Amino acid sequence: MWPQESSSCQVFAILMGLDRSVDLPIMASKAVPEDVLMNGALIRDLEVVAKDIALLRGVLMRTKETPYSSEVVSYAPFTLFPSPVPKVLFDQAIAVQTHFNRLVDKISQDTKFLHEALDSTIKVDDFTARLFNIHMHVLQEGCSQPIALGLNRSDYMLDRGTDGNTTLKQIEINTIAASFGGLSSQTPAVHRHILKVAGRLEEQKKVLDNNPAAGLAKGLAMAWELYGSERAVVMFLVEDEQINIYDHRYVENELWNRNIPVIRRRFEDVCKTGLLDQDKRLFIDGQEVAIVYFRNGYMPQNYTEQSWEARLMMERSLAVKCPDIGTHLAGTKKVQQEVARPGVLERFFPDDPEAVAQIRATFAGLYTLDMGEEGDKTVAMALANPDQFVLKPQREGGGNNIYGAEICQVLSGVKGSSERTAYILMDKVQPQPVLNYLLRRDCPLKLSTCLSELGIFGAYVRKGTNMLLNECAGHLLRTKSAEYSDGGVAAGVAVLDNPLLV
Ligand code: ADP
Ligand code: MG
Ligand code: MG
């Protein structure tokens, strides 16, 4: 056993050979008390225990080496300990979720708003323009399906304000392919077990139950029933390389448990065998599709010319799309910035000031880069203090944002031209760093200064003008080493975590 009367985390990190380079900031608080965090022998035991329990509980991923097969798999990356999250902020995030569901759904149907919000962006961003063209095409042809199914995830960081108050700030809302609802249904059992083995019996009781897989499947099941054909399938539209397949499987299996048939197909498969009948019913391999659940199609690299055709066919079809094209566009960063303008939330919720207040309380500063005086001001503000902002293009999946000195480089290049309207600018949220160990395959265990991001899953189903389901479907905590500014789990930066409410 290592002595426990440590005065400096740094000394112990070095003694344990865990990471000689970690210079722990005084500010960093701990996921668990120092006596556990600094007990080298215990930590080494827990590392083995943790990986085994993750495998036993099915917190799995395919490996980079064998992304096409399940012959050899590994654990999905995760933190050794759950991370502290203030209960009041967690509750706030849960409470606002049904309002965000309604907001996204309203935006998705407001063609005029989407057009105005994205007008400057689609002139310079080809990807958003192509999505927008599909939206226009479907509108002109007439919407063929009154059922809308939304499965989203609103992500937050906890901002340590200069006044010492920590507040909940929304980073973004993912309206397409929001992932980790499956694996995060399994991680509470993993952290509870680790804490038990570490002798932290009281803390293990505080790890929250979580089952987004069931919450997301509830929405899918309701939409499938409303579609009204027992033979029709739910189609997961998936990537070619399916490293994160087990995350999908949890949702998929919830559907099979309800005797709802599921197929998994790629864009390429839809191109080859997909067709619409005279009533615009979608058939793939001769099977009628009730729901297309997009777990792919959120970034330009996902598309070939043929898959753009396939996306259009699916959008035109009678199948329920999760998300439909309007809802996909409602999740763009540009729309997020436009919604934050004064008066816009009031327009969407004329009779519900409470919803407006709850939503607005989560907004960080968001700034337009449209051509004109307002955009010029944004440029000047970013160039003067680049470390206080994040520059965001209309992209998803992590690793696309621009930080610090690079903001100046990029903005200096585009500041006089309309190219700048491909981006938005956002206040940089500054969370409290927390010490924890990150477990990642093939990486030596190291004590890291970490930042967390809380995601709340939303599920809703609407038929015509009737909202039939509007729920919060669970949560996800992701944690990354503070040395990285950007990045999700799939991007190889963040790892799965659980909130320990404090
Ligand atoms: P993506 O759609 O690619 O996930 P995000 O807006 O979520 O785009 O940004 C990716 C990551 O960048 C986030 O997970 C977070 O770590 C970091 N990030 C984004 N916006 C901010 C912000 N305003 N302040 C601090 N970090 C941010
Ligand atoms: Mg995103
Ligand atoms: Mg994100």
TrEMBL record:
Entry keyword annotation includes Magnesium: yes
Cofactor(s) required, per the database record: Mg(2+)
Residue span, Glutathione synthase substrate-binding domain: 232-330
SUPFAM superfamilies (UniProt xref): Glutathione synthetase ATP-binding domain-like (SSF56059), PreATP-grasp domain (SSF52440)
Cofactor detail note: Binds 1 Mg(2+) ion per subunit.
EC number: 6.3.2.3
Presence of keyword Nucleotide-binding: yes
Cellular component, GO, one term: cytosol
Pathway: Sulfur metabolism; glutathione biosynthesis; glutathione from L-cysteine and L-glutamate: step 2/2
Catalytic reactions on record: gamma-L-glutamyl-(2S)-2-aminobutanoate + glycine + ATP = ophthalmate + ADP + phosphate + H(+); gamma-L-glutamyl-L-cysteine + glycine + ATP = glutathione + ADP + phosphate + H(+)
Superkingdom: Eukaryota
Keywords, sorted A to Z: ATP-binding, Glutathione biosynthesis, Ligase, Magnesium, Metal-binding, Nucleotide-binding
Listed GO MF terms: ATP binding; glutathione binding; glutathione synthase activity; magnesium ion binding
Pfam name, any one: GSH_synth_ATP
Family that this chain belongs to: Belongs to the eukaryotic GSH synthase family.
Described function: Catalyzes the production of glutathione from gamma-glutamylcysteine and glycine in an ATP-dependent manner. Glutathione (gamma-glutamylcysteinylglycine, GSH) is the most abundant intracellular thiol in living aerobic cells and is required for numerous processes including the protection of cells against oxidative damage, amino acid transport, the detoxification of foreign compounds, the maintenance of protein sulfhydryl groups in a reduced state and acts as a cofactor for a number of enzymes. Participates in ophthalmate biosynthesis in hepatocytes.
Subunit composition and interactions: Homodimer.
Protein name as annotated: Glutathione synthetase
